[in-house]
């Protein structure tokens, strides 16, 4: 069978007994075999276990027993989210051979409780540090719309797997844009939930005050379904909130008449590509035809978001990654000469890649005595100003509409030697993480190179339903979400 159906369509086919889950899973593995050499979405695939579970589910259906809401749909899980007894490496040499003895809460809910099938682990920037998936110890993933270009990052493998029809559902994590960037560059849908909406238990921490695990899919409806299942209080993560989980899928069809969209001009300014700007503006017009209104909102601290985000993210990373010393966590160096500190530093020097080392060093510096107030504390103060900008904006509007990324996908290698330029790619995504707000990215058009453009909708705290509702209405009007990439360009084998 072809593998470009939406998840909700497949669920219907399974319920009508038109499709066996074993055939569904088998056809996705065939698609993986065919396309993986071109795009490299996965760090690891788990075919035997997946087919076994598919058979169990088919048997269960035969005996008229009900199965979980996700009906055996394949899900690709980013390699920093723990799956019991499956290699979880964060695309880092230091975690080679690590098999967590437990599931992340999201995996427990989606796979164990609601019967999604984990088909493999997706490629990413090492420890989620990057915007292009080029910082993976396994090598980069490639954009299915043009194989010479990056898929975005850090959840790049989840984006490419969806776009190429290797999976139906996927998970990413978003610390500063890592779900939304690959969604935008690969032409799929991704949502970063409100901080505290989804459990982080079992997510290997990069910068824990900023990140959330987010659902990724080929359409807004599938994303809404995933979020419904993932969201909610978890006793294993004290930062999750008791706020009730809405019926996101139910509310997608609602009219958006009278909804007020805030348009922050700063998000359309310098550095934002003309074609991206025009495409997003056109989509805003489409929403206006559906009787949404617009209002200008201002975001005066946008220029400070990159230094603020990177200071906080690197500071937290330097502390979170201290546990990987080869003794408590991580694979120890072979060379055991010297004392314990020699072995620790040799392990970390050998096993972490250059971007991770850079961030640990910069983060440690920002937290060190004498510099702490000047860098880290100052960044926390600016973080409050950024939050205030959003709070002011949400007094006037229901959601904020803007581009997800300032450009479409750039070429592999183009920004690798220029970390600052790479960091600047996050300028429109990381404000959301600093404030802890939810945001959705969905495709809204293509540039003249036929590369997808991402539309970002930012919501108020715990108001995922509004951005999903508006996003769904836009998706239906634009009707481009079924377009599939050519898997050409670059050095095709
Ligand atoms: N590109 C950003 C970073 O490198 C965001 C990554 C993420 O969201 N995990 O930190």
Give the tags:
Amidase signature (AS) enzymes; 11-stranded mixed β-sheet; 11 strands; alpha/beta; binds glutamine; about 500 residues
Describe the structure.
With about 500 residues, this protein is of the alpha/beta class. The protein has a single domain (about 1-300, about 390-480), classed as Alpha-Beta Complex (Amidase signature (AS) enzymes), CATH 3.90.1300.10. It is built from 15 helices and eleven strands. The protein has helices spanning about 5-15, 20-40, 45-60, 105-115, 155-165, 180-185, 220-230, 275-290, 305-320, 340-350, 355-365, 375-395, 420-425, 430-435, 465-480, and strands spanning about 40-45, 75-80, 115-120, 170-175, 190, 210-215, 260-265, 295, 400-405, 440-445, 450-460. Strands 1-3-2-4-6-5-10-11-9-7-8 form an eleven-stranded mixed β-sheet, sandwiched between helices. A hairpin with a 5-residue loop joins strand 10 (about 440-445) and strand 11 (about 450-460). Helix 2 (about 20-40) runs antiparallel to helix 3. It is globular. The protein starts with 6 loop residues before the first helix and ends in a 15-residue tail after the last helix. The mean pLDDT is about 95.
What layout of secondary structure does this protein have?
Layout: H1 7-15, H2 21-39, E1 42-45, H3 47-62, E2 74-78, H4 105-113, E3 117-122, H5 156-163, E4 169-174, H6 180-186, E5 189-192, E6 212-217, H7 220-230, E7 260-264, H8 274-289, E8 293-297, H9 305-320, H10 340-351, H11 354-367, H12 373-393, E9 399-403, H13 419-424, H14 430-435, E10 439-446, E11 452-459, H15 464-478
Parallel strand pairs: 2-3, 2-4, 7-8, 7-9
Antiparallel strand pairs: 1-3, 4-6, 5-6, 5-10, 9-11, 10-11
Helix pairs in contact: 2-3, 5-6, 7-15, 9-11, 9-12
């Amino acid at each position: 069978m072809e593998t470009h159906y939406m998840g909700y369509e497949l669920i219907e086919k399974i319920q009508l007994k038109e499709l066996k889950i074993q055939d569904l899973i088998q056809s996705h593995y065939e698609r993986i075999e065919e396309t993986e050499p071109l795009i490299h979405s996965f760090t690891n695939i788990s075919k035997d276990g997946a087919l076994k579970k598919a058979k169990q589910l088919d048997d269960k259906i035969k005996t008229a027993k009900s199965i979980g809401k996700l009906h055996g749909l394949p899900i690709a899980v980013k390699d920093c989210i723990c799956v019991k007894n499956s290699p979880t490496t964060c695309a880092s040499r230091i975690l080679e051979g690590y098999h967590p003895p437990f599931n992340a809460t999201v995996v427990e809910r989606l796979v164990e409780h609601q019967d999604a099938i984990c088909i493999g682990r997706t490629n990413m920037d090492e420890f989620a540090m990057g915007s292009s998936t080029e910082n993976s110890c396994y090598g980069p993933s490639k954009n299915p719309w043009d194989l010479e270009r990056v898929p975005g990052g850090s959840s790049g493998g989840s984006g490419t797997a969806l776009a190429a029809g290797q999976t139906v559902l996927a998970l990413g994590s978003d610390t500063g844009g890592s779900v939304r960037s690959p969604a935008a560059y690969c032409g799929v849908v991704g949502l970063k939930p409100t901080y505290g909406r989804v459990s982080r238990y079992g997510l290997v921490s990069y910068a824990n005050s900023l990140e959330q695990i987010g659902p990724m899919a080929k359409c807004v409806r599938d994303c809404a379904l995933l979020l419904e299942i993932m969201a909610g209080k978890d006793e294993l993560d004290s930062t999750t909130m008791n706020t009730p989980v809405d019926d996101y899928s139910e509310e997608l069809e609602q009219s958006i008449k009278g909804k007020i969209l805030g348009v922050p001009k700063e998000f359309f300014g310098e550095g934002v590509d003309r074609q991206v700007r025009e495409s997003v503006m056109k989509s805003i017009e489409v929403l206006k035809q559906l009787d949404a209104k617009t209002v200008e909102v201002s975001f005066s601290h946008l220029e400070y978001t990159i230094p603020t985000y990177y200071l906080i993210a690197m500071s937290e990373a330097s502390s979170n990654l201290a546990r990987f010393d080869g003794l408590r966590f991580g694979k120890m160096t072979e060379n055991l000469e010297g004392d314990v500190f020699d072995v620790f530093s040799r392990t970390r020097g050998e096993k972490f890649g250059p971007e991770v080392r850079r961030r640990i060093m910069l983060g440690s510096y920002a937290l060190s005595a004498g510099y702490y107030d000047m860098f880290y504390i100052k960044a926390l103060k600016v973080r409050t100003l950024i939050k205030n900008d959003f709070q002011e904006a949400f007094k006037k509007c229901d959601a904020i509409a803007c581009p997800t990324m300032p450009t479409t996908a750039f070429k592999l290698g183009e920004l690798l030697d220029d970390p600052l330029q790479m960091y600047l790619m996050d300028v429109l995504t990381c404000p959301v993480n600093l404030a802890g707000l939810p945001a959705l990215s969905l495709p809204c058009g293509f540039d003249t190179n036929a590369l997808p453009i991402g539309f970002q909708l930012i919501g108020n705290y715990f108001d995922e339903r509004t951005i999903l509702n508006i996003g769904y209405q836009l998706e239906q009007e634009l009707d481009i979400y079924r377009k599939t990439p050519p898997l050409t360009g670059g050095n095709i084998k």
